[in-house]
What we know:
- Strands 5-4-3-2-1-6 form a six-stranded mixed sheet, with helices on one face.
- It has one helix at about 65-80, and strands at about 10-15, 20-25, 30-40, 40-50, 55-60, 100.
- It is about 20% helix and about 40% strand.
- The longest helix is centred in the C-terminal third of the chain and has 19 residues, at about 65-80.
- The protein is α+β, with helices and mostly antiparallel strands.
Amino acid sequence: MGIVALMYYRIEISQTRNGFARLNFPGRVIALEATQHVGPVWLVGVLDPTSDGEGSVTVRADNAGDAVWRVAQATVRAFALLTNSPIEDAIKSSPDDYLTNLL
């Protein structure tokens, strides 16, 4: 069994822009923004300026912040699976642990 590197990441959820977050991975930054909704179904834009990639996902959530939080958690887990790297620390259950002054 070989040595597996831990995946380091940082989630930043904006306190000033409702429904906006940034995920920081080594060498990559991914921006998330809840842009529109119909009832509880939110469209969350995903932007990866590192590779000029962009897209969107839909998610059921109570509000824009919750929608971004759900996509942020899923993105971290997917990144860990795709890179075959265990997550450094467990993702905390509350988005309040990740609030920043991100504009």
